[in-house]
């Protein structure tokens, strides 16, 4: 399973051709491609082109609308709810962030809850848009149920990530993007491919017993909330995942808890549908709605430098500031190219030939 | 160490006499008492009257101002920064929530970052104020550094809690109030008193090694971020604690990271003071800024009932909704009284006699 290297520009061309093929207009094609490939650039391989075929299958079964009419259905000066009209989450969440930034310009902060959307890629892409305006960005999304709340066998929550992106001055921005589970599903998929055991505290089996089997989700097991078990604070991870569900779906009218539509198009949709599509929650806060940008940046740089300078436990393994590993991955991958496994290359070429498009270079 | 039972009303009278003694006016006395005892009622024994002597010692050394002039120093329609003028956090955070609610009434949401404050008791007390207006409440605070970020020996963050309180319809509200560490410091104090080992993943020693010694903080050890270690997601707990610090202090001008003033009055203040006092972050979001309250409550009830009805792993140990244990504690304690350990009773009576006030009944 050796890695193929492909340049960001080549992968951009390929991905654009796919989104164009399903009928996205020029702007949406460019935006969806940029949002999707942000994951590949930042080293979150589970959320980039590895999911492109999955998005297209959702379009093929009619669950993704390539020409959505994204509408504001409720608003106040600092809030909005938008109906994503089954558009790609990659696009819908970006539009939500545009509205949040506009509201923040007017009244200091903007908060947009989104219904009737689909998978939005990595949360960081959306949250980071706010950085351009010296704003702090938030992005959350609910997701199909793979996570059991503390004390239960049932899968009732998604990996429901939270991202907060905050600007700094001379230092790079602080970007925390975290699934509210011990480990994101993508981490588990890596272990499946390597046939390695998962650390305890990542998953449980169908009966709720602790297990290290990385394939256990295929036989009724569940991911565990951040913390792993009650003694180690899993009730906190569960509460955080629940908060994401409330903001993304209970405020917007999207589906929630076990009723969030599954990502794989072949998995049947839940029979009961208390809402529409999946939900996101997007926020933007103008720094200068609180304090002068200059003062804030001065202290933010000092904060960041303080953490970087902390005494390491092991020599050479220094404290990271949230966003560091992803930024380093992006620098390397923009220069050297993006590594794709043989499996992904084959999948993408199969997709291309199915759609009558050229293979990857 | 048998428990003494004391009624809520008796404990209220006692606590009020103490706050009155240090010069709080009638309104502040009533408010500070209600905020402090919310912890005792809700079963968070570490944050209630057990800290009363500590608050008074801070007043004695001049770090708490009993007659603060709490002022808005920066604002937009949806935001404010307030200077707490070294007031009791119990009072300052409540005032911040009043402003957040007022902003939310005007423009949908309100967000207040607070500088120059002190320990605010339990976050849930402040966040829950928003429930009265059918709003979702947020409360965060930074705290003195006891927590080491992933890969470091140094204590750079407090237990930095996050609380979100969201109303429901017929069901009681959802109230998640969580320290961003594996276990709150209060949990560790319980083990110290019982001389029991802590689970692995709660603390590390001064060299950063895993340990189960609950007294390790007294010899340079540190609490661990939620997750415990890198394999179990401690970088996520660290990121969450960092987010609380950014919102509470970097936005307000309070002290942050290792420079947050210590709670015990005998611990020397940090030499460097990049800000003022400790910081909080308070938010209020009108539900009807997103959706009709009626629809929201219908779905929130369904969400809550779905979780309560989840299949338990062990018979009888059902899934809890965040806020359940605390609400049950409050019901029991309002009826039967609040249990105080002999140590706490002695400490409170020593405080009373030092201030020339009557003992506990």
Structure characteristics:
Wheat Germ Agglutinin (Isolectin 2), domain 1; seven-stranded mixed β-sheet; 361 residues; 10 helices; Hypothetical Oxidoreductase Yiak, Chain: A, domain 1; three-stranded antiparallel β-sheet; homodimer; alpha+beta; 4 domains
CATH topology of the largest domain in chain A: Ribosomal Protein S8, Chain: A, domain 1
What is the CATH top level name of the largest domain in chain A? Alpha Beta
User: What's the pLDDT, averaged over the residues of chain A?
Assistant: 96
Low-confidence segments of chain A, given as residue ranges, are: none
What does this structure look like?
- Chain A is 37% helix and 17% strand.
- By secondary structure, chain A is of the alpha+beta class.
- In chain A, the strands form three sheets. A seven-stranded mixed sheet of chain A has the order 2-3-4-11-5-6-7.
- In chain A, helix 1 crosses helix 2 (26-41).
- The radius of gyration of chain A is 20 Å and the shape is globular.
- At the A-B interface, strand 4, strand 7, helix 7 and helix 8 of A face strand 4, strand 7, helix 7 and helix 8 of B.
What is the compact description of this entry?
Chain A is α+β, with helices and mostly antiparallel strands and 361 residues long. Chain A is 37% helix and 17% strand. The first copy, chain A, folds into four domains: 1-67 and 337-361, Malate/L-lactate/L-sulpholactate dehydrogenase, four-helix barrel (Hypothetical Oxidoreductase Yiak, Chain: A, domain 1); 68-182 and 224-294, Malate/L-lactate/L-sulpholactate dehydrogenase, NADPH binding domain (Ribosomal Protein S8, Chain: A, domain 1, 2-Layer Sandwich); 184-216, Hypothetical oxidoreductase yiak, domain 3 (Wheat Germ Agglutinin (Isolectin 2), domain 1), CATH 3.30.60; 295-326, no CATH class.
